[in-house]
Amino acid sequence: MPGIMPDASTPYNIPDHDCRLCPRLAEFRDENKQKFPDKFNAPVPAFGNIDAPFLITGLAPGLKGANFSGRPFTGDYAGDLLYATLLKLGLAEGEYKARPDDGLTLKNCRISNAVKCVPPANKPETQEIKTCLQFIKSEIQAMKNLKVILTLGLIAHQAVLRSFDLKPTAYKFGHAMKHDLGE
Q1: H/E segment holding residue 148
Q2: Is 52 within 8 Å of 106 (Cβ atoms)?
Q3: Which end of the chain is more exposed for a tag (fewer CB within 10 A), N or C?
């Protein structure tokens, strides 16, 4: 299928660098490649070890954050908050300088997005979320030590549930909510 890059070194499916599965997102990336040719402007890969027991899942890359840097939550205010918290909790080491080459590493933690490409106005369409579901589902299945998933927002929450073939209506979204998904 065009747009999917199963890589021998990656135990799960990831979109290729010029994924065209979502025409609107591909067009938006193309526009950004023209405006910002020195930026990442591609589907943003996860950050952290696939063997981590803890996964943080966000909505999608930010236009001038992860879309520019190529690392989730890197280069925007949400990343400033997230990485400071991870450092404080001992889930990251090094110094966060809002660049993918800042030397920051995650400990027992991984960060990914439900939608891999930056959407216009930070609003992916339903079909784009459904198309990208294959990637987060494959990634979660490859995380053999996974114990805890923190979802940041409704779309990430629903995508994670759907990756387990669960109905989002059975697991209410809310701040500080906890759900046991079993095995």
Answers
A1: strand 148-151
A2: yes
A3: C
